[in-house]
Amino acid sequence: QLIFGLLTAFLAATTAVARKNSGKTPASNDTSLNRPLIHFTPEKGWMNDPNGLFYDNVTDLWHMYYQFNPNDTVWGQPLYWGHATSKNLTTWTHENIAIGPDSDDAGVFSGSIVIDYNNTSNFFNSSINPGQRVVAFYTYNTAESQTQYVAYSLDGGYTFTKYSGNPVLNLNSTQFRDPKVFWHDETEKWIMVLALSQEYKVQIYSSENLKEWELQSNFSHHGILGYQYECPGLSKIPIVKSSDSSLNSSNSTSPDYKWVMFLSINPGAPQGGSFTQYFIGDFDGKNFTADDHQTRFLDFGKDYYAFQAFDNTPNNDVLGVAWASNWEYGGFVPTSPWRSSMSLIRNFTLQEYHPNGEATELNLFSQPVIDHDVLNANHTIHKGNLTIGSGKNVTFDFHNSATGLVELNVTFKVNTSSIRPHDFVDLSFYLRGASDPHEYLRLGYENTAPAFFLDRGNSKVNFVSSNPFYTDKTSVNFLPYSTELNTYKIYAIADRNILEVYLNDGLAVSTNTFFFTEGNHIGSIDVIAGIDGVYELVDFEVKQLSV
Ligand SMILES: OC[C@H](O)[C@H](O)CO[C@]1(CO)O[C@H](CO)[C@@H](O)[C@@H]1O
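Structure tokens for the assembled complex are given below, as produced in the milestone run.
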């Protein structure tokens, strides 16, 4: 009787321990299995805008701060600057909270960081390495006002001291925020751009010491106005030769760079909610002048907002990151104990392209920054010259150990001679869940439109079907990468609950979150054409990666 009793007690104890330690049986609403592997997420709590992005060339370390509410999975105050670091812009290390408000009903809102090499601020003495003279700018938000604060770090960006002379900018406004500061070589001045949000003004200030700021101009009423301007940025971006040799204008007088003004709008985006637009032009230290009246989208997806470029990058490369969510539903997405991720870091250049058969325009091209050396490719399929019939071609099946991190790299060719004008002629890639293939992403191209499309609505998760703002289908016009060969390029990376798609080497990009049942990671891809003999996969590679 005694032995039986002891045995029963022992079994009960081990079962309890097993359940607690397995980690695979999530607590009530813990969706950790769906947490992205290489898109940054806070360990817990709510995140939005990226802030204070800079590269420390003394320690070869990248720093990213972010809008952080550690106390809930929705936006709220007290609001902090959360902090993470990376050696490779692919995997991130969580650091301690960097800057906090002085009271619980205030917020350290969005802002930026510069490296004050020459100690123009006089915050530093010679003991601080010039490459680590970190100065942060942010909006201090209270119910009464939004004013601009400065803080400096004596330990390379982990802890900060608030400048005793704060605020350095105060317009007695509750809608004045998001300072992005950079050094303007040509005039040897610091420049700050920030939003007088509901007057639709990007205000441009200059300073010699990072403390006293003089208004130079307003960039106002450009682009989609929506409800308010937020998170502006101004970067000098190199013009590089297009991959299409017919495009490289021979006149050597064309400059090798242009200035680009980034500007976020929320709410009021054309696709609904939040989006980031940009303008190409010139900056002389006082005025930013757009070259034309075009409103350009930085990303055609639903989840790419509050973009910010890094400061102090090697070779002045233009690298940046956006919050991969949308204010109109970001507070309701079914993840726990965290909400939202950042996009991948992207490298930006300007290139010429043909938007149609006659015009030539300049556009930003985005390249994802992924250090594959820190990832394992534990399954690769590489095929070429595959003509796709209307039958089903399973091209990638790794359902028995899906990691959820999948790269798709496709060049396809369209044989238009066999297309009747009213046919719906699609080439579709179905990225299916490993444990339930009825949950899938469908992306592809349709030649009559012609456009790229994405359908992220095929899921059994209630949020996906019930939230009216979580629009599930999106598209963007998509012309040949090479006109003479009539070929197109799609690069897509799916990372558990976020999909980034780069068309024609980054001429157009679309970032969208998606939500499948817990643990139902992408494990197979079907490639199906709506018609025989029109589409050929010139080159097709699928890789499953793990960290
Ligand atoms: O008053 C802030 C308002 O809720 C905006 O829509 C969110 O604002 C942004 C944009 O997402 O987030 C920050 C605050 O967390 C703020 O600095 C920035 O303008």
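The radius of gyration is 25 Å. The longest strand covers residues 376-388. Further analysis is deferred to the final report.
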